[in-house]
């Protein structure tokens, strides 16, 4: 699937999930709500699995899939849900920075210079590579997802989607780590 097709389908899946949630709470629409909710979760799961498989070849696509998903969640977020909105806005901002890091790591000469600006201490490193905005975004997002996974009563199918998204962040970090090593001439 191409980038625009994948991102359009991610958008559609979030729309179905949101519509399904709302209809589940609407008299007479419960069945359609359940169908849309499940269809949205299944579609999103399939898309995130496809994006994960291509992470080593197209890391930007994996990041853009998550970025699109959380951007859509923000669109459907109730204005009064200030904590959720703040969390989603922070995640979007972190992924903006992560994409900047991804573009930087692909410019080997510049990245070698940038790497020298990171302290050698473990606090500033991820597996001996700079813990830059990309790693920070993935770590923070996995923490955010982990918080959702600890919420009792969450639908098991939705938890599976959260687990897939968390796994995608681990795959993203692994692929990015390889890019860092390549940029720095380690592999």
Short summary:
This protein is an all-alpha fold.
Structure characterization notes:
The chain is mostly helical and 187 residues long. The protein has one domain (3-183). The chain has helices spanning 3-24, 30-53, 59-76, 82-105, 108-115, 133-149, 156-183; strands spanning 125-126, 129-130. A two-stranded antiparallel sheet has the order 1-2. Helix 3 (59-76) crosses helix 7 and helix 4 (82-105) packs antiparallel against helix 6 (133-149). The two termini are 30 Å apart. The relative contact order is 0.12. The mean pLDDT is 95.
Task: Give the topology string: H per helix, E per strand.
Answer: HHHHHEEHH
| Helical segment count | 7
Into which percent range does the helicity of residues fall? over 70%
In the sheet with the most strands, the strands line up as 1-2
Structural class: mainly alpha
What gap, in angstroms, lies between the N and C termini? 30 Å
Report mean pLDDT, rounded to a whole number.
95
Q: How many domain modules?
A: 1
- What does the largest sheet look like? 2 strands, antiparallel
Number of strand elements: 2
Question: What's the overall geometry?
Answer: elongated
**Low-confidence spans:** none
User: What is the alpha-carbon Rg in Å?
Assistant: 18 Å
Query: β content, as a range?
Result: under 5%
């Amino acid at each position: 699937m191409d980038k625009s097709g994948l991102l359009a389908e991610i958008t559609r899946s979030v729309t179905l999930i949101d519509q399904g949630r709302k209809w589940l709470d609407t008299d007479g629409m419960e069945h359609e709500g359940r169908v849309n909710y499940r269809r949205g979760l299944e579609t999103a799961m399939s898309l995130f699995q496809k994006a994960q498989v291509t992470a080593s070849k197209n890391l930007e696509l994996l990041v853009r899939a998550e970025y699109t998903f959380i951007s859509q969640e923000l669109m459907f977020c109730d204005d009064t849900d200030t904590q959720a909105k703040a969390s989603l806005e922070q995640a979007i901002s972190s992924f903006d920075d992560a994409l900047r890091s991804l573009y930087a790591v692909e410019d080997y000469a510049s990245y070698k210079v940038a790497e020298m600006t990171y302290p050698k201490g473990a606090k500033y490193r991820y597996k001996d590579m700079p813990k830059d905005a990309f790693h920070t975004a993935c770590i923070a997002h996995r923490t955010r997802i982990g918080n959702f996974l600890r919420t009792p009563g969450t639908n098991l199918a939705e938890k599976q989607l959260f687990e897939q998204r968390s796994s995608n962040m681990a795959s993203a970090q692994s692929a990015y780590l390889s890019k860092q090593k390549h940029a720095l001439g380690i592999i």
